[in-house]
Write a structure and sequence with these properties.
By secondary structure, the protein is α+β, with helices and mostly antiparallel strands. It has a single domain (3-160), classed as 2-Layer Sandwich (Alpha-D-Glucose-1,6-Bisphosphate, Chain A, domain 4), CATH 3.30.530. The chain has 5 helices and 8 strands; from the N terminus they run ββααββββββααα. The chain has helices spanning 25-33, 35-38, 133-142, 144-152, 155-160, and strands at 3-9, 14-21, 49-54, 61-67, 73-84, 88-96, 108-118, 121-130. It has an 8-stranded antiparallel β-sheet.
């Protein structure tokens, strides 16, 4: 399992997930840079993602939805803030309606994904900072730790393919 640690801190409004992959950072970066690869790991198992827009450059946007086993769609968006290929990228992540408009009463987080070489592997650090402690508590109650961890754990299969 790639996920090696999960921490959340209500006071700092952060959720941090650490993972390790048996591939160089450049290869892990490609998963996030290529929407067709990203679709294979963005949603938890059984909830595949479809990216209808994907621009991983500063100021770029990504629009996606995940489809449940019953066919229900859950949409979201990214607003890309910074990119340091292949080491990191920063983006705002939010919930959206099916026309990709932000849902105002749902939490928004600023995410920093960092990929560093570590003993021939990649150590990935995923840090999400929520606007409010209540926002973090809401996504924790929704199962974000389990969903994000199971999604990240799919990366090994993609790397082995």
């Amino acid at each position: 399992m790639p996920v090696t640690d999960v921490q959340h801190d209500i006071d700092s409004r952060t959720l941090t997930i650490t993972a390790e992959f048996a591939a160089p950072p450049e290869r892990v970066w490609q998963i996030y840079a290529d929407p067709r690869q990203l679709e294979k790991i963005w949603g938890p198992p059984g909830y595949p993602a479809t990216f209808v827009e994907h621009d991983l450059s500063p100021g770029g946007r990504a629009h996606f939805y995940m489809t449940s086993p019953e066919g229900e769609k859950f949409a979201g968006y990214w607003k890309v803030l910074a990119v340091d290929e292949p080491r990191s990228f920063t983006f705002e992540d939010g919930f959206a309606d099916l026309e990709f408009n932000a849902i105002p009463d749902m939490p928004v987080s600023t995410n920093v994904y960092t990929f560093t070489e570590h003993d021939g592997h990649t150590r990935a650090t995923y840090v999400a900072t929520y606007e409010t402690a209540e926002g973090l508590e809401k996504v924790l109650a929704m199962g974000v730790v389990e969903g994000a961890s199971s999604a990240i754990n799919q990366i090994d299969d993609l790397l082995a393919a």
